[in-house]
User: Fold these one by one.
Assistant:
Number 1:
Amino acid sequence: MASYDTIIRGGTVITAADRIICDVGIRDGRVVALGESLGEARQVIDATGKLVLPGGIDAHVHIAQPSGEGIVMADDFESGTRSAALGGTTTIMPFALQEKGCSMRETLKAYHAKADGECHVDVSFHMIISDPSEQLLGQELPALVEDGYTSFKIFMTYEGLALNDRQILDVMSVARETGALVMVHAENYDAIRFMTEQLERGGRIAPKYHATSRPIAVEREATHRAISLAELVDVPVMIVHVSNREAMEQIRWAKDKGLTVLGETCTQYLVLTEKDLDGLGMEGAKYVCSPPPRDTASQEACWEGLRNGAFTIFSSDHCPFRYDDPQGKLVPKGKTSFRWVPNGIPGVGARLPILFSEGVSKGRIDLETFVAVTAANPAKTYGLYPRKGTIAVGADADIAIWDPGKRVTLTHDLIQDGADYTPYEGREIIGWPVLTMVRGRVVVEDGALIGRKGHGIHLSRARSPYAKRGFEGRAQS
Ligand code: DUC
Ligand code: ZN
Ligand code: ZN
């Protein structure tokens, strides 16, 4: 009788710490052996000459989120997780957005209902807090953190979402008490409104002015303020989607001071610039996201941050809207001002191939760093490690096999999310995930989805080790 369900034979296995040529033995959806010539299995996958990497964890994606009147997000959980799988990602972490006046528990139930039975890869929800009522802070959040929803995002900008400093302090205090990890969207709301109104008064309403309306100072100031508020409360904080050197320097400054401040950057800040928003007519709307892509010096800074640990995590911030659609980027009001163009770009499928090609293949980062920022660190940061994010005995067999020399021209057809474009169309990629496995089952092979939706499950999470340390320390004192 075969000892294993599957053996991945002869590949180079990479984790955040090691690279070894060996076989990977898989049984009941988990890795049960790493070794030479592992013997028999019902299924043998030859990985000679290939790289065997932990499946990616995309810790920042938006799926089926309400996005304003008349606007519809392009992905449901089937299409979003299909694209993730095609791009070598085996777990995504989408947001459940609390709408004003609504219970967070009910919100989560609604998102579970949308996701259940639909997913190709595993899923674990963060929460977005828009209404920090007494009920939410005093009762719902502590119970939800206990139940494994151990992270939440807050916004310093956007009508209906922005929290003021007092509210941020209240939310951070609950994170401190409960051991949750706070993620912050750091841009100054009032400054953006001021800039937007000035631009509109001057008739500067095209999509490219979206970037003009939220310059680096807007992000840098809010990043520093978020860090300072977290310092007051003595709570760890994750600054998400950092786009430039000045914001990154606030994170570095905080780390040097001994604060637990973590950072995330995203695909768009490595390969897009503000100039991409300057398309013909409304075409620039395809690249409207916040913070906006900056310039080549900012790209360089973000690469540096990935190399030197200023950024712990690399995500897509997948936030998909169809372009040629009145419920998407071409919503009629968007023609009257950039302020109405839906914010966000698709990227869950393109994230890993772009980082691999621009990073590993071009020598900007090594393979271990690639695995760290795309899989191991997200798993550790958000309480999924060591079940996820590594290839080790006992871990889930979430694996992507990469052909490091495969040349591909990136097109939306390969990515297959629910949008009608990719902002990365036509890029030449070197290195591609040729097989994706989720808990031992092959879901993508040679660019084709072969799994059935419903294999992906929801993961409840432990507390982040960053948050938990403080939480446990406080509990004992
Ligand atoms: N923030 C996000 O995190 N995603 C999309 C839009 C935004 O502003
Ligand atoms: Zn955000
Ligand atoms: Zn986002």
Note: The longest strand covers residues 4-14.
Number 2:
Amino acid sequence: MLDKGNLFIKNSSEIVTCSGFKAKRGKEMSDLKVIPNGGLVIENGIIKAVGDTRKISENFKEENYQVIDASGKSVLPGFVDSHTHLVFGGYRAEEFCWRLNGTSYMDIMQRGGGILNTVKATRAASKEELYHEGLKRLDSMLSFGVTTVEGKSGYGLDCETEIKQLEVMEKLDSAHPISIVKTFLGAHAVPEEYKGEEDKFIDFIITKVLPIVVERKLAEFCDVFCEKNVFSLEQSRSLLLEAKKRGLKLKLHADEIVQFGGAELAAELGAVSADHLLKASETGIKEISKAGVVATLLPGTAFSLKEPYPKARDMIEKECAVALATDMNPGSCFTESIPLIFALATIYMNMTVEETVTALTINGAAALNREETIGSIDLGKQGDVVILEFPSYQYIPYHIGVSCVEKVIKKGRVVFDKKGKNKLYVD
Ligand code: NIG
Ligand code: FE
């Protein structure tokens, strides 16, 4: 939908390039490759020049571009939220209150609430309703500086509704400035009609739903909620192997509630990412590091479920590539807030601000297999950037829970401006 823009950003206090074309592991996560007095040129949506403003000005004439004077402001790559469940019907505020009173997430799920509650509402919702709710969530994400987001199905658990969710994401992707990467999560829970027949349900997903998803190119990734009392390692393996055979890339909800061998399975199958990992074993962490699987950590979920945080420091010491994402969903973590993720990662997970920025940019891109085209400010990459209202990236976690994003640029066009009276998609 979006026209591609020609933009010249000059005099920024710094450009935080996060430069690189592959995931950053271990110590590499600390080097943001910052350019002071940064200038940036985007032509036809693609980054054409980045460096000291004086040098850039010698080679590029301002009159050919929309010019932004970013004096006193920091410029970063657009954030990549690489794990969300953004299209769903209904809400579960009541369950949230039950959890505050001590009922566990899994107890609610086993009583037919949780994911199955959202499944009912999503099956009942029209495409239009899902689309309009989705748009609102994307607008909220955009205001936090997100320029690419991953979205999963998984609230249908039948052929029709799984496809409906993926089609809604397709439409949202073409209507909204944020790019959406789609994931098929048909094995998110066992629906009522297959209760006690998990193997039969997996077989249904493999033989009836997956082929349509692949044939109609409705998703790029396949994911499974591999967890005790949900889908076993064997069930997860059989679905993911079939998905891989059919050309989908893999993700896994791994070791979220109990230690279950999900990280090991992600490594065995060569998944692009293993997500959650709150309870991942030492061996599992070593194996995903060795296999080059991105460890996608979702601290908002640990916070909301009052669970211990994933061991980010341990993972970084073991040379993992760590990404961070919101997990935005109606149950375990209902938030689009990037500032919240910054606060939790830096304050509770002991990640440095630099590691956190890397985890939400180039490593988020790597978790979506897009490290060569987005996630950093490098020549030839897509012109997706954010401009902060402060001079340094350090202000992001420092301004606790509040967004410092002043402007969002997608493919060289200003698509959000905080000062434009909250107007979205401004030009
Ligand atoms: O990532 N754990 C499974 N899926 C989501 C929660 C979905 C929901 O509760 O609706 C998660 O936590
Ligand atoms: Fe999730």
Note: The chain has a mean pLDDT of 97.
